[in-house]
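A quick aside before the break. I want you to see a complete sequence-to-structure record at least once, exactly as it would be stored in a machine-readable document. Don't worry about memorizing anything.
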Amino acid sequence: MPQTIQQQESEQGWQAGLALKLAAKNGRTVLHSSRHFGPLRVQRPFYPEGANCHLYLLHPPGGMVAGDSLAIEVNLAAAAQSLITTPAAGKLYRVANGLTQYQGVHATLGEAALLEWLPQETIIFNGAQGQLVNRFELAAGARLIGWDIVCLGRRASGERFTTGQLQQSIEIYRQGRPLFIDRVHFTGGAELLDAPWGMNGGSVSGTLFATLEDQSLSMDALREQLPAGHNWGLSRRGEVLLLRYLGDSSQDCRRGFEAMWGVLRPQLLGWAPLRPRIWNT
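That is the input. The structure line, written in tokens, reads:
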């Protein structure tokens, strides 16, 4: 984040940033500092569970046009606990001048810290030029549960993703060692979108990720919790559990992810699932 926090506007679009620092203090997690510039804010902390700090990220424009950039930094000190989400879907609108729309999330978790990163989906309009970057750096004993959902085009409106680009990445590290690195490049109208070895005609792609301390969790038992009739993929890579969705419904993806979150949360975190009240579907 720049030393001088200020709103910037130019021919290159809106530049916005948010830096959050959370710390454990007197038995609960507090928002130690919040610095921002541009149209990006955080609502006041909520404590529906006592110690755990719930935060809602707010982007008043609701979408990104050509040249827009959102940079989000989250720093959890040792033993801090937070659930972070958004009130609505993000949107990347059609770009006419070729400028990229960028959203970067960089989270650093101290020893024994816990982050639940649960944003709502991002809708990629036909003709968008997007880059979505998610990077999580974990210290010893830190725990992470999160997801990322993208919708290519607006199927409900009859719009397909025939032009444009989207680069999406999810990276998880522990003490500098990579645990999971996933990078995808979608090109509008490309063979990947319709081929059986690719998206197979689907318009919604989602990935849920969770660090596992308990390696004895039954994968078969977890699969039984997923809604029937959808293309789910559940796997484990080292200490990271992965659940992937491929289909045409962001709501179905969210329901499946919430169901898995509801199962994992008590087993991995020791807490019953408590749905953020800002989620209205």
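Two observations worth writing down. DSSP finds two helices and 18 strands in the chain. The helical segments are 219-223, 250-269. We'll return to this after the break.
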